Amino acid sequence: QTASELVSSGLAASAEEAFDLLTVGLQKMPAGIRDELLAASNEYGDFFADLGFSGEETFGLLTDFAEDGQYGIDKVGDAVKEFSIRATDMSTASVSAFDAAGLNAEDMAAKILAGGDTSREAMDEIITGLLSIEDPVEQSNAAIALFGTPLEDLSVTEIPDFLTSLQDMGGGFGDVGGAAQDMADTLGGN
Fold first, then answer.
1. Residues with Cβ within 8 Å of residue 186, at least 6 apart in sequence
2. Engineered SS bond to 45: which of 9, 81, 144, 190, CB 3.0-4.6 Å?
3. Among 48, 2, 50, 51, which Cα is nearest to 25's?
4. Residue 134, Cβ neighbours under 10 Å: how many?
């Protein structure tokens, strides 16, 4: 079911790629919460894909936040979900947050709604804009306006790290191609 969801969301191009992602993701997750990766990818996969994240980036981010257990996974998933809504809703709070970050709300909303690479680039622009706000209170208020209540549980000093983690994922896991077959070969080769 999870592999099917990954393909339908666009985080994986094929079932083979989905199983490769799952193999690496489950290997990198703490053993006690591995089932949370499956639940999170099912619950939040569409939101990550809509924002232009690759499967490797999504799983890399989820496993990074797994250091804080289920709580960390839910926080990052909920924040991305909220961002996909708030960055395009043109509410007074969102427009003010974009203004504080030196960005045009209509332009950013249009880029987010475009999806794919355009959306991913816009998200990076928005995060860069938020990180450029020097006043920590103004920065946290703008970030909360765009990422919602999941950030309210963070202290003001943790928000820049959270934003940076969304921006500095690189390729996430990198190339996961062949991971499921490698695991099968290892299991069957002894």
1. none
2. 9
3. 2
4. 7
